Amino acid sequence: MKDCWHAQVKSVCQDRASRSMGMMSKVVMLGDLYVGKTCLINRFCKNMFDRDYKATIGVDFEIEKFELSGVPYSLQIWDTAGQEKFKCIASAYYRGAQVIITVFDLADIKTLDHTRQWLEEAMKENDPGSCFVFLVGTKRDLLSSAECRKMERDAIKIANEMQAEFWSVSAKTGENVQDLFFRVAALAFEDAILKEVEGVTAPTVIGPGGLISKTMCCITAPSGCV
Ligand SMILES: Nc1nc2c(ncn2[C@@H]2O[C@H](COP(=O)(O)OP(=O)(O)OP(=O)(O)O)[C@@H](O)[C@H]2O)c(=O)[nH]1
Questions:
Q1: Which residues does the chain have with pLDDT short of 50?
Q2: Does 34 sit in the ligand 1 pocket, CB within 6 Å?
Q3: Of all protein residues, whose CA lies closest to atom 30 belonging to ligand 1?
Q4: What is the membrane topology here (predicted)?
Q5: In the chain, domain spans
Q6: pLDDT at 12
Q7: pTM of the predicted protein model
Q8: Rounded-to-integer distance, Cα 72 and Cα 65, Å
Q9: CATH code given to domain 7-220
């Protein structure tokens, strides 16, 4: 069965690769103003960090291109404004997300409390269970290791409630930023391929993903597949 699943995945990848047919997944970043959403995207997509704050007006997006198992693959990363006055514009872009990243500032506990509300808003526009959810604490560089561990304990509780994967990062130093987005890409890519493989039911939880770089990816079979 596992061999059969691998063969089907391989055939979908080969077919797409031979036809140079790309795949794309939509990622939506949300969270309070000033938590560092734009900086996180800029660190990953442009390897840059800007210490000056420029509020996002409504929404913005970046496309990051990869090649996974020979298949051209892109993440369309939507950066939404945290300011209340732009909420109605930004929420129009929540629909159809494969991945929702709720972002908070590790140095500001109230932004962590607000992540539940942000996720609730995003899930009004998406079907339950249709998205991978990440909870990401930013500005890790501003905290001592002890402060960081304390915040992370609180954040993990909320991540468990949200059924989200928790990551602690810094856009300033770049710590964990690339690993976070590679993990996002691996999960979203596996999910997109699974949906294409006929007769395979997508599992609720997908395994640890594969090793992924901008030029290669190794896909693991879902845990439910024997
Ligand atoms: N020290 C430190 N500062 C950061 C980090 N990430 C962002 N900042 C700073 O935090 C401020 C806000 O960052 P943005 O990325 O603009 O925040 P945002 O969440 O996109 O804000 P809105 O667009 O209003 O929703 C800026 O002054 C950044 O320089 C980080 O990892 N470490």
A1: 199-226
A2: yes
A3: 139
A4: Lipid-anchor
A5: 7-220
A6: 75
A7: 0.85
A8: 7
A9: 3.40.50.300
